[in-house]
Amino acid sequence: MSFTQNAATAAPSVTPEAVSEQVRSWVAAAAKRPAPAQARMLADLLKDPKGLDFTVAFVDRVIRPEDPRAAAVELRRLAQDSPAFLPPALRRIFSFGAAASPLAPQVVVPAARAVMRRMVSHLILDARDAQLGRAIARLRADGTQLNINLLGEAVLGAKEARRRLAGVQRLLARPDVDYASIKVSSIVDHLAMWGAEETKEHVVSTLLPLYLDAARAESPKFINMDMEEYRDLELTLDVFETLLDRPELMGLRTGIVLQAYLPDAARALARLQAFAADRVARGGAPIKVRVVKGANLAMEQVEASLHGLEQAPLHSKEEADAQYKRVLLAALTPESLRSLHVGVAGHNLFDVAFAHLLLTERGIAPGDPSVEFEMLAGMAPGQQQVVRDAVGSMRLYVPVVSPREFDVAVSYLVRRLEENGSSENFMSAVFELDSSAELFAREEERFRLALARALREEARPTHRDQDRTAEARAGLPELGSRVLPAKPGRFANTPDSDLSTRANQEWAAAITRRIPSSTAGIAEADAARISSVDEVDAAIERALRGQSAWSARPVAERAGVLREAARLFSVRRAELLEVAASETGKMLEQGDPEVSEAIDFLLYYADRMEALAADADLRIAPRRLTLVTPPWNFPLAIPTGGMAAALVTGSSVIVKPAPQARRCGAVLVALLHDAGVPEDALILLDAPENEVGRALVSDPRIDQLILTGAYDTATLFAQWRPQLRIKAETSGKNAIIVTPQADLDLAAKDVALSAFGHAGQKCSAASLVITVGSVTRSRRFRSQLADAVLSLRVGYPTDPTAQVGPVIEKAEGKLASGLTTLGPGEEWLARPEQLDETGRLWSSGVRDGVAEGSEYHRTEYFGPILGLMHADTLEDAIRMQNGTDYGLTAGLHSLDPAEISLWTSRVEAGNLYINRGITGAIVERQAFGGWKRSAIGQTAKAGGPNYLVHLVDVADARETDEEAWLDAARHSDREHMATTFAARDPQDLHGEINVLRHLPVSTVIRAAAGTTPAQLRRVLHAAATAGADVELSVADPGLREVAEPLVDGAPLAVETAEQFAGRIGALSRTRVRLIGEADDALLEAVASRVEVALFTGAPVMSGRVELLAFLHEQAISATDHRFGNPLPHALDLVGPGGYRRGRD
């Protein structure tokens, strides 16, 4: 039975006027009580325009850093503009401390920290036994009850989770503690929502001893199950009910929190009411629901923005306030309270008065044990005392923390201070309600509007109702829908699966059950198997015949086929996840974003091709035949991206999947055929890697090759056929730098996820972490990293709780060496172990003491292995990070804007990540591709705006005389440099910056025989506009006179084709803009040094094309918030001029 009902049918006679009268009396009474000094200081802080920012910054940037020297830097910055709310004595302490901090940071910084801790000590208590005992006795002296919440280090692994649980057990064992809060996420290191049922069972078994101890205790012990993140709602409810259904816990009185700002709150309340009523009917004890507004809004908004999901909480403060009252109306009835007790939690005196008067109206006396009023310790103590006297009870929510871990209270303090300082929140007026008629009227009106809305409207349904099973049954989704939010010409990323919903949890479980017996793609892959060169020839001939008709279709029609494919992929998401897991060992959690990425490639490249074709300055011609050779590690997204890009240009495609991912390739090709790609325009070949495979790659009828794989593979293919245009994304040796200014818990978490996702088998994976200065000696960082790594659960995709899957094949050769053999001076922080007889399951390994220039520093191992390097300074760390042959991804963890600016100006990589993980690039948001040996050929970032340009042949759309052509080219260069190639964040997300910028790159301009002066002048202007440093080589001596006035002393050589080709191996620059035809000697020289990118094609007027030879793309992704709140300072990511927001 459910006791909830339409609030309008249960409208109380309590009026807003009666509520206001009650609040006035409480405010007047509280004003007569002396406010403690700390409370007065908090009030002054909130009044000071600089107070909130200063305090939050001090807590996060002076208290949090482990290194006193790092904290001293921030202390000096903050002291330059200390706010007026600080008493003169404290201002003098801060000023003196800031001045002395460079000389004695070990003395000054602890002193300054102690001052600030005293300022907030009424908000967070000292967890040490004696100090906590005194504080509890003081708070309970007047009859106030407490709810103790133990804070601690971020739970990244099982060790810290066990420690936190043991801490709560010790708290409840104290005779002076009878009530404590605990969160599911604080006692389990990983909540595997792709295995929701298994995770629930694990959490229940973990919590059961704690609940049994409470049930057996001589005096009552109450456990309140708390939660913050929306994703934990269903799991927490399931765990709570499963525990309390156990016979040995039927007599235990316990409770759970309910966040009213969630539209799901009404449904959750009804569920709890039914559960409680049934429990009491069976002889069990009542349970309690603690009703709060909700305090994780800022982070929920960030998560929704990043993942393309609807914000879980209600969208407006008025809606949330109305929902809170709606919940109280349904919960505070005599019938419901018999089995479901209520904690009315909050400081809004209007809500408290409303609940108090509502209870009186319904015949429930003050002090009735079925209802408690709850507030936060230290917030408006005078009002707390007055309310307690009126309502008969008061329970204070009291966070406690060990002084040595005080920094972990940062997020709690930030939330408390932000909600106190925000004008939308009642707490911003709490200290002035007695003196400001304006503020009282503001809060009175807000209450009146919210109450009217609660009585007028029913509860909203949940914002998060994604149901993959229902989507599949409904058929192809429309573009612009919640399933596929992109529209033609208005790209938007496809949301991943939301595992917070029950429907999706059941959908995921069904996929997991199908994995062992999956046959997806087997028949199609077998049919595509070939074993002879003749079959290669036949396939090529067939693809060439098919290309004519395919390329003849209008661009809009080809783009439409890709969009139709995106709709099919969406409907068949489960099948794609199943085949990737079955064949390659891809965990569902890793595979789901890959399906979204595949869909995004289809939709994004459709848009980009239509935009390219609409360029009035260009004539686009497709290349007849493209060979796509994708890898096994991303068996869905990468092959889809390669095929989609080539197909939409009008090329036919032969795709040869990796042998380990042939079934995945077969399923993808079948879906593309079903979407309308002709079978003769897209051909799947399962060719052996022998002379048959070589014949395919080497065939002169293949116009271009899209490869994702090892650098050595690109070199081999180039040497097989130097004339082949190779567009390759290759290897990476990627490092994350962690400085003393970093949030070390966040850094350890991101390092572990970046290193070991998909068992480290991502070319973007973190293979190195470089600790700077004191981080090298940090017990906190090392223990948190080791805990996170050692706790990673390893298994096959049939285990939905596993975080790290198998390596693709038995570890042998280089990978086996990396997993088992240390270099000189190295030692294991976490030793990898083989976990089964197949040689595919390995625990994650971390080696410490990796030396600069060592084998591990410079070698890509492609497995679950991470190395630690140590640098004295950030400059040293950057040198180490740049000190490999590759430049794919790079990360920095630092909250210091100056360090971030320095790093972004010097690091040599295509994808930069700041204060976040370095894997998981998303189409358009973080276009993917590297520098140096990580990118081969005339290519651009996959999923970026320039990728298709290099897959087609371009020419000027119209002929004109040379001078007019040059004038138009100069104008085009300037226009595109200022617009197309300006630094831009196309998506402008909440909480994350994602900028694509184009940097000048050193280039050799080679003017081959037949180059005209106008062509050379045109190319030189593009180089100058881009700001590129150039070297010039000309075959015709007469071009020297043309070039010299334009190159401003740059190196200039007159040399034959053979002489120039002979210099390729020694070039310091690795990009060549060739004007004219490439002779065999040059192509063979480049094939021997494939990192030299040869940009060919006749010069064109359009700067959209011509500037690309002189620009390096670089994508920068930076976390732009702390605990959901925007950073107080703008990040300088791209230097002077900044960047543009949005696509237009």
CATH architecture heading of the largest domain: Alpha-Beta Barrel
Give the % helix.
40-55%
CATH topology of the largest domain: TIM Barrel
Biggest pleated-sheet summary? 9 strands, mixed
* Amount of beta strand: 5-15%
Number of contiguous helices: 42
Strand order in the largest sheet: 18-19-20-17-16-22-23-34-28
Report the uncertain regions. 1-5
CATH C-level name of the largest domain: Alpha Beta
Question: If you average the pLDDT, what whole number results?
Answer: 94
Q: Can you tell me the overall shape? A: globular
Catalytic activity: L-glutamate 5-semialdehyde + NAD(+) + H2O = L-glutamate + NADH + 2 H(+)
Pathway: Amino-acid degradation; L-proline degradation into L-glutamate; L-glutamate from L-proline: step 2/2
Keywords: NAD, Oxidoreductase
EC number: 1.2.1.88
Structural features, described:
With 1144 residues, the protein is an alpha/beta fold. The protein is built from 42 helices and 37 strands. Helix 10 crosses helix 11. The longest helix is centred in the middle third of the chain and has 26 residues, at 588-613. It is globular and about 100 Å long.
Task: Give the topology.
Blueprint: H1 16-31, H2 37-47, H3 51-63, H4 68-79, H5 88-100, H6 105-119, E1 125-126, H7 129-140, E2 145-150, H8 158-173, E3 179-183, H9 184-187, H10 196-216, E4 222-226, H11 233-244, E5 255-259, H12 265-281, E6 287-292, H13 297-307, H14 317-331, H15 334-337, E7 340-345, H16 349-361, E8 371-376, H17 381-391, E9 395-401, H18 410-421, H19 437-456, H20 468-474, H21 502-514, H22 522-527, H23 533-552, H24 555-571, H25 573-584, H26 588-613, E10 618-622, E11 625-629, H27 637-649, E12 652-655, H28 662-675, E13 682-684, H29 691-698, E14 704-708, H30 711-720, E15 725-729, E16 734-738, H31 744-756, E17 766-772, H32 779-790, H33 813-820, E18 827-830, E19 845-848, H34 855-858, E20 865-871, H35 874-882, E21 886-887, E22 889-893, H36 897-906, E23 911-914, E24 931-932, E25 935-936, E26 952-956, H37 962-978, E27 984-985, E28 992-1000, E29 1003-1007, H38 1013-1026, E30 1030-1034, H39 1039-1047, E31 1052-1054, H40 1057-1063, E32 1071-1075, H41 1080-1087, E33 1093-1095, H42 1103-1106, E34 1111-1119, E35 1121-1122, E36 1125-1126, E37 1140-1141
Parallel strand pairs: 1-9, 2-3, 2-9, 3-4, 4-5, 5-6, 6-7, 7-8, 8-9, 11-12, 11-14, 12-13, 14-15, 16-17, 16-22, 17-20, 19-20, 22-23, 23-34, 27-37, 29-30, 29-32, 30-31, 32-33
Antiparallel strand pairs: 10-26, 15-25, 18-19, 21-24, 28-34, 35-36
Catalytic activity: L-glutamate 5-semialdehyde + NAD(+) + H2O = L-glutamate + NADH + 2 H(+)
Region (Disordered): 459-499
Pathway: Amino-acid degradation; L-proline degradation into L-glutamate; L-glutamate from L-proline: step 2/2
